[in-house]
Amino acid sequence: MSGKPRLTYLNGRGRMEPVRWLLAAAGVEFEEVYLETKEQYDKLIKDGFLLFQQVPLVEIDGMKMVQTRAILSYIAGKYNLYGKDLKERALIDMYVEGIADLMQMILMFPFSPPDAKEKNLDSIKDRATNRYFPVFEKVLKQHGQDFLVGNKFSWADVQLMEAILAVEEKVPAVLSGFPQLQVFKTKMSNMPTIKKFLQPGSPRKPPPDAHYVETVLKVFKK
């Protein structure tokens, strides 16, 4: 073992992408193993690697971690991206959970039936502009700092940056009414670790395509 965290998932975003984002933002290099067949997935289950028979799987510090939220909170705590006290951690948790609700819609979008795609895209746009982004616009304005919690870079900032870019891929002008979020996005994009992650050739995955959807259905078929 190289000592680097080892990520096992498909070669695409899915539920592993926020983990890649958080490790990259913390400046941590990692290795990846890609599932391409149902047999690989079944073997992980048979070997007892997947506690609840689900990926993502992250091997870190001698643990085989599953459940995205548990993985993310461990990484955030380990790399000092989880606030300075319980109150800050509670705020980070609230923000992260809200962003995760929005990201769940984006996660499922590629699997929409063709006749539902337009409706689902409208739902993403509506939720982003009317429910989620106004919250973070207000937080940044009232807080008057570069970051969402305290005056320190945290897991919540990383998740929000990922969500902004993911929504912009579907709705390019989504930030037009959110000046604070525009400034936030620019500042985050210029943070050295995030800037590196946004460069071509980084471990960041492209938007899901038909091949990715096909692989997901093949690997996880019942």
How would you characterize the overall build of this protein?
With 222 residues, the protein is α+β, with helices and mostly antiparallel strands. It has helices at 17-25, 38-46, 68-78, 86-108, 117-143, 155-170, 179-189, 192-197, 210-219, and strands at residues 6-9, 31-34, 57-60, 63-66. A 4-stranded mixed sheet has the order 2-1-3-4, with helices on one face. Helix 1 packs parallel to helix 3 (68-78), helix 5 (117-143) packs across helix 7 (179-189) and helix 6 (155-170) crosses helix 7. The model has no long low-confidence stretch (mean pLDDT 94).
Protein topology:
Blueprint: E1 6-9, H1 17-25, E2 31-34, H2 38-46, E3 57-60, E4 63-66, H3 68-78, H4 86-108, H5 117-143, H6 155-170, H7 179-189, H8 192-197, H9 210-219
Parallel strand pairs: 1-2
Antiparallel strand pairs: 1-3, 3-4
Helix pairs in contact: 1-3, 1-6, 4-5, 4-6, 5-7, 6-7
Summarize this, please?
Belongs to the GST superfamily. Alpha family. The protein is α+β, with helices and mostly antiparallel strands and about 220 residues long.
Task: Spell out the key features of this protein.
single chain; 222 residues; alpha+beta; Glutaredoxin; Glutathione S-transferase Yfyf (Class Pi), Chain A, domain 2; 2 domains; 4-stranded mixed sheet; 9 helices; 55% helix; globular
